Amino acid sequence: MKVLTKELWFQTRQRREFINITRMVEDLVKQSGVRDGLCLVNAMHITASVFINDDESGLHRDFDRWLEKLAPYQPVSQYDHNNGEDNADAHLKRQIMGREVVVAVTDGKLHFGPWEQIFYGEFDGRRRKRVLVKIIGE
Ligand code: ZN
């Protein structure tokens, strides 16, 4: 069995940002030499997500507005968690958008459905944070 484990680092300029990481993951699948297997991609921080959806900027603004309605950043004092921190909203947003994705690898490629792309979702950014990628198979 072949295995590749890699951590990708991100530092966003904005507090909240979505980054398409599909190419980076595809490169790792190539590096792994796996033709048939599974690829796990997970955020290593509890205020960030990894998810699959469309790479369409209108949709990303819709996600952001929707999340901000569900768990508004302000007022910071509305959350019990914000007792010396200000990121309770980011924990809640992460929970909705998810921790990880698993994509099948077939013929050495990520086996996506139509329009599927992998995103890193940052909800409490402007500092260095990691995503773990693990690819296993034959
Ligand atoms: Zn926190």
Topology summary:
Layout: E1 2-10, E2 17-20, H1 22-32, E3 36-43, E4 48-53, H2 57-70, H3 88-97, E5 100-106, E6 109-110, E7 117-122, E8 129-137
Antiparallel strand pairs: 1-8, 2-7, 3-5, 3-8, 4-7, 5-6
The structure holds zinc ion (ZN).
Zinc ion (ZN) binds next to loops.
Structural class: alpha+beta
Number of domains: 1
Radius of gyration: 16 Å
Query: How many DSSP H or I helices?
Result: 3
Largest sheet: 5 strands, antiparallel
Helix content: 25-40%
Strand segment count: 8
What does the overall shape look like? elongated
- What is the CATH C level class, in words? Mainly Beta
Strand content: 35-45%
Ligand types: zinc ion
What's the arrangement of strands in the largest beta sheet? 1-8-3-5-6
CATH architecture: Sandwich
Write the CATH fold name.
Jelly Rolls
Mean pLDDT across all amino acids: 98
Q: What is the H/E order?
A: EEHEEHHEEEE
| Relevant CATH superfamily | YjbQ-like
Q: Low-confidence runs (pLDDT<50, min 5 residues)?
A: none
